[in-house]
TrEMBL record:
Keywords: Signal
Organism name: Ectopseudomonas composti
Protein name (Swiss-Prot/TrEMBL): Tetratricopeptide repeat-containing protein
First and last residue of the signal peptide: 1-22
Gene3D superfamilies: Tetratricopeptide repeat domain (1.25.40.10)
């Protein structure tokens, strides 16, 4: 395990540990919903989130009703635990899956009321997440470099088929300097080849990363690792 990745992997793997503990009590989406609901009603929100994440993993195998229920459970538990950014991230997963039930519509309004969009969108600095399936998120941290510029630290993950038992199937690490106007930026000084461009487009709390796929351009991580895709900002 990469030492620097502790800042990313520790909270994510702690979440997986909670999910593994929940797996000892629930094996199906329905059972995990029951376990998570009991924890939620008891005020044990982190345990509830762990059970609901396991519910989501089972539901992603094809049960649309359980998928929407699991995501709404995660949205609500995140809101109740004060993790409004994560609530918005889970809502994004629901919307990306074209889910539009009454609970999803209700929670869309609740998230909009709870989340401080102006603060999140005011600066590029903060924590961004990209969903990778199986309740696993890749992370991007953007920070100030002390001289008016910004630094980017990517920690991409690939969940794999047995993430609950063994953790992510692959991890990566890519750090560099961001050059641009806070809307369009490119990654420099990241140890990549001259043809391995990584570009960022920031629009409010969403950020899109485009990278070149070529020999040697993804050597910053294990098999199937990439930093490209759409990210959502969850905290400043």
């Amino acid at each position: 395990m990469l030492i620097r990745s502790k800042c990313l992997l520790l909270p994510l793997l702690l979440g997986l540990t909670v999910a593994v503990q929940a797996s000892e009590e629930c094996a199906t989406a329905v059972q995990c919903n029951q376990v998570g609901t009991a924890a939620y009603q008891d005020g044990r929100y982190e345990q509830a989130i762990g059970a609901f994440e396991r519910q989501l993993r089972r539901a992603e195998e094809g049960d649309t009703a359980q998928l929407e229920l699991a995501l709404n459970n995660l949205i609500l538990a995140s809101l109740r635990s004060g993790q409004t950014g994560m609530a918005r991230a889970w809502l994004g997963v629901a919307l990306d899956n074209n889910l539009s039930g009454s609970s999803t519509r209700l929670h869309l309004g609740k998230v909009a009321e709870a989340l401080d969009y102006p603060t999140l969108a005011a600066s590029p600095t903060g924590r961004y997440l990209r969903y990778g399936g199986s309740a696993v998120w890749s992370e991007l941290l953007i920070s100030e470099d002390g001289s008016g510029g910004y630094l980017a630290s990517f920690s991409p993950l690939r969940a794999g088929a047995r993430v609950e038992e063994y953790g992510p199937a692959a991890i990566g690490e890519l750090d560099g300097k961001l050059v641009g106007d806070e809307v369009q930026m490119r990654l420099q000084d990241a140890g990549l080849g001259s043809d391995c461009a990584v570009q960022l487009l920031r629009e409010g709390i969403e950020l899109r990363v485009q990278e070149v796929f070529a020999d040697g351009c993804q050597d910053y991580g294990g098999m199937g690792i990439s930093v490209g895709g759409r990210y959502i900002k969850v905290s400043p």
